[in-house]
Amino acid sequence: MAEEKKQVPLRLSTKLYNAVAAWAEDDFRSVNGQIEYLLTECVRQRKKNGKYVGQNIDAPLDIEIE
To answer: Cα–Cα distances in Å, from 64 out to 18, 19, 46?
Structure first.
């Protein structure tokens, strides 16, 4: 039996969405699949060393996406 998945509403800025969508296309994934993959990798890393992937994980996003 497949694991049931929880639906979660998510709001992203247009720039961030477009960047994730381009990355997903490069990796041959859907946007949803890419977000799930990235979150899974972050959780694995945290379980591995007890720390968040980045030191400033809670800092507001300040990214330049062209």
So the answer is: 12, 10, 26
